[in-house]
C-alpha cells in the first residue's frame, strides 16, 4: 500500500469528529395534533446564502434531541424555542447551534420546531405555539428516564419571538391550554430569554410578532394577556435575560420590564445588557469578546443545574 494513500486515509480519519451520530427527532404528538384542521399548508425550508436555515408553515411540530458526549451529561435539559417573529424559525443559529453549545456544558438540549400561527391550519392560531411549548415540556419529562434527566431540571430557552413563547410558557403554566392536558407539569425549572419579545403594548411591541399571533386588531384584553411582563408572579421560574441596547427590532425595554416584574415578585433574575449587538446575534455578539454563554454557564452553575 502506497505511503501517500495511507497518509490520506489517516488525514481523512482525523477530519471526522469522534462523536458522530444522527440527531434523534421526536414527534411532539402521537395521533391527532390539537388545535389543527385539514389544510393545504405545507412546511417550507429555506437555506440562506450564509448557510442559515429558516423554516415556515410548520404543520408537524417536533423536538430534535442533542445529547452531550458520553459521560458528561449532568441531568439538566433545556427546550429551545428559535425566533422568527412568529412567521418563521431560525432553526440553526437560534436552535441547533445553541443546542451544541449547551451540550458542552453537559446539558441535554431539545430544539422545538413549533407551529407558527396560521388561520388556515389552526382553529385558534393564538394558542398553537403555547400548546406546542407546553407539550414539549411534558414530553421531555415523560422521556426523562430515557435520557437520564432530572424532571425537576428542565428549563426553557427562547430567542426573540421564541423568547415571547418561553416567557409565555413560564408565566401561564398554572392553567395549561388545550382540551385534555396530561398530568405532567408544564412549569419550566428556569427561563433563558434572549433578546425576547416580552410585551405586546403599543410602545414596546414587535409589530410582526403581535400581528402574526393576534391579528391586526387585537383587543385591549388580548394585548394585556399576551404581555408577559404583566403575567409574572412569585411562581415564575428563575430567569436569565440577555439583550443589546441598540436592538432596533425588539426594544431593549422588553427585557428590562420583565426583569423589573421579576424584581417586584421576588423571582431570582439575572440581566445582561450589551451596549451594541443589534438583534438576532445568536451565539456570538460580534461587538464584544464577552460570550453570553459563559455568563449562562456561571448562572446555571450557581443555581446547581450543572451538578451531576
From TrEMBL:
Matching SUPFAM superfamilies: alpha/beta-Hydrolases
Domain of life: Bacteria
Gene3D superfamilies with a match to the protein in the record: alpha/beta hydrolase
Ranges of residues in domain BD-FAE-like: 64-260
MF annotations from Gene Ontology: hydrolase activity
Keyword Translocase among UniProt keywords: no
Keywords, in A-Z order: Hydrolase, Signal
Record's signal peptide: 1-22
The protein, known as: Alpha/beta hydrolase
Species this chain originates from: Hymenobacter armeniacus
Amino acid at each position: 500500500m502506497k505511503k501517500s494513500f495511507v497518509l490520506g486515509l489517516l488525514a481523512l480519519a482525523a477530519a471526522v469528529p469522534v462523536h458522530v451520530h444522527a440527531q434523534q427527532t421526536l414527534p411532539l404528538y402521537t395521533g391527532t395534533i390539537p388545535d389543527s384542521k385539514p389544510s393545504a399548508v405545507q412546511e417550507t425550508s429555506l437555506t440562506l446564502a450564509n448557510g442559515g436555515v429558516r423554516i415556515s408553515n410548520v404543520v408537524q411540530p417536533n423536538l430534535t434531541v442533542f445529547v452531550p458526549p458520553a459521560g458528561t451529561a449532568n441531568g439538566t435539559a433545556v427546550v429551545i424555542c428559535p425566533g422568527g417573529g412568529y412567521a418563521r424559525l431560525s432553526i440553526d443559529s437560534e436552535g441547533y447551534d445553541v443546542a451544541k453549545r449547551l451540550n458542552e456544558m453537559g446539558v441535554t438540549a431539545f430544539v422545538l420546531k413549533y407551529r407558527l400561527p396560521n388561520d388556515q391550519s389552526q382553529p385558534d392560531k393564538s394558542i398553537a405555539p403555547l400548546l406546542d411549548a407546553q407539550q414539549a415540556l411534558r414530553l421531555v419529562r415523560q422521556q426523562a428516564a430515557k435520557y437520564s434527566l432530572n424532571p425537576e431540571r428542565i428549563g426553557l430557552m427562547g430567542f426573540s419571538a421564541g423568547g415571547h413563547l418561553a416567557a409565555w410558557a413560564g408565566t401561564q403554566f398554572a392553567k395549561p391550554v388545550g382540551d385534555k392536558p396530561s398530568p405532567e407539569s408544564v412549569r419550566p425549572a428556569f427561563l433563558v430569554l434572549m433578546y425576547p419579545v416580552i410585551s405586546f403594548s403599543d410602545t414596546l411591541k414587535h409589530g410582526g410578532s403581535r400581528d402574526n399571533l393576534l391579528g391586526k386588531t387585537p383587543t385591549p384584553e388580548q394585548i394585556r394577556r399576551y404581555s408577559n411582563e404583566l403575567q409574572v408572579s412569585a411562581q415564575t421560574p428563575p430567569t436569565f435575560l440577555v439583550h443589546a441596547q441598540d436592538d432596533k427590532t425588539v426594544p431593549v425595554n422588553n427585557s428590562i420590564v420583565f426583569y423589573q416584574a421579576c424584581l417586584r415578585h421576588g423571582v431570582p433574575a439575572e440581566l445582561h445588557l450589551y451596549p451594541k449587538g443589534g438583534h438576532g446575534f445568536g451565539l456570538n455578539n460580534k461587538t464584544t469578546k464577552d460570550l453570553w454563554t459563559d455568563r449562562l454557564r456561571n448562572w446555571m452553575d450557581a443555581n446547581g443545574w450543572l451538578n451531576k
